[in-house]
Design goal:
CATH class of the largest domain: Alpha Beta
CATH architecture of the largest domain: Alpha-Beta Barrel
Strand order of the largest sheet: 1-2-3-4-5-6-7-8
Oligomer: single chain
Order of helices and strands: EHHEHEHEHEHEHEHEHH
Structural class: alpha/beta
CATH topology of the largest domain: TIM Barrel
Number of strands: 8
Number of domains: 2
Strand content: 15-25%
Distance between the termini: 25 Å
Length: 271
């Protein structure tokens, strides 16, 4: 399971002021804690900053990589911002994202190829967001075909079936899970990713829904997620699910988490 830490996002309270003020200490702390909690990538997103985004995203990359060894997920639909960030990024970045929208695809593909990034591919196009499993599957196929035809290896693609809030439609959860199964069957080498917390938008106690949804999505075949690695119960359920799904041979990682005091239950917090 590939964990992409979501916390450095200027839509979150306190993050945009920190970026505007170049409060490096706060950003470094957020990054370091996410890596310590198990994040494989640190997502950096300053999409609320308008014309300041390119400079801000590049600053975030430099600041975060001062304290973490892990690569970053560059989260922006703005090609200019992504390019500024890629110029200063150390190692191989994950670009979030490309889609079937013609302008975005044409602008992002050269960056993917020049910097050899991994890439999140959103199953959406100029017509908007997908509604059905079939539409997601068809658009996913087009993305895979277009990216591989351009020379992007299948294993570098992270397909995103687009989680939508269950508050808007009671069936979006089941549609997403079935799409994940279809993707996994069709393209075993491709990673399947989602922005986990999108499912719970509009509801109280969103973390409860996020945790339940993660377990179901893992069972369906999800192998990457943008999530909050500082949610101890979420990470505990992730460890347990991987063990039960046969992805953690002999429970090695689960036992390590237990010994390190990282397993958190509803009854108590780890010491």
């Amino acid at each position: 399971m590939i964990i992409i830490g979501e916390r450095i996002n200027t839509s979150r309270r306190g993050i945009e002021p920190a970026v505007r003020e170049r409060n490096a200490a706060l950003i470094r702390d957020e990054a370091a804690r996410q890596q310590e909690a198990g994040a494989d990538y640190i997502d950096v997103n300053c999409g609320t900053m308008g014309e300041e985004e390119p400079a801000a995203l590049a600053w975030l990359v430099r600041t975060v990589q001062e304290v973490v060894e892990n690569p970053l997920c560059l989260d922006s639909p703005n090609p200019a911002a992504v390019e500024e960030a890629l110029r200063v990024h150390r190692g191989r970045a994950l670009l979030n994202s490309i889609s079937l929208e013609k302008k975005r695809f044409a602008a992002m593909l050269p960056l993917v190829k020049e910097y050899r990034t991994l890439v999140i591919a959103l199953t959406m196009g100029d017509g908007g967001l997908p509604e059905t499993v079939e539409q997601r599957y068809r658009w996913g196929g087009e993305l895979v075909e277009n990216l591989t035809a351009a020379g992007v290896p299948v294993s570098d693609i992270y397909l995103d079936p687009m989680v939508r809030p269950v508050s808007t439609d009671p069936h979006v959860g089941t549609v997403f899970l079935e799409t994940v199964r279809r993707f996994k069957a069709a393209w075993p080498e491709i990673h399947i990713v989602c922005g986990l917390s999108n499912i719970s938008y509009g509801f109280p106690e969103r973390r409860v829904l996020n945790r339940a949804f993660l377990v179901m999505a893992l069972a369906a075949g999800l192998d990457a997620a943008i999530l909050d690695p500082l949610d101890g119960r979420l990470m505990s359920l992730l460890a347990a699910s991987r063990l039960l799904l046969g992805e953690d041979a002999f429970g090695t990682e689960y036992i390590r988490a237990f010994r390190e005091g990282k397993l958190e239950t509803g009854n108590h917090k780890p010491k």
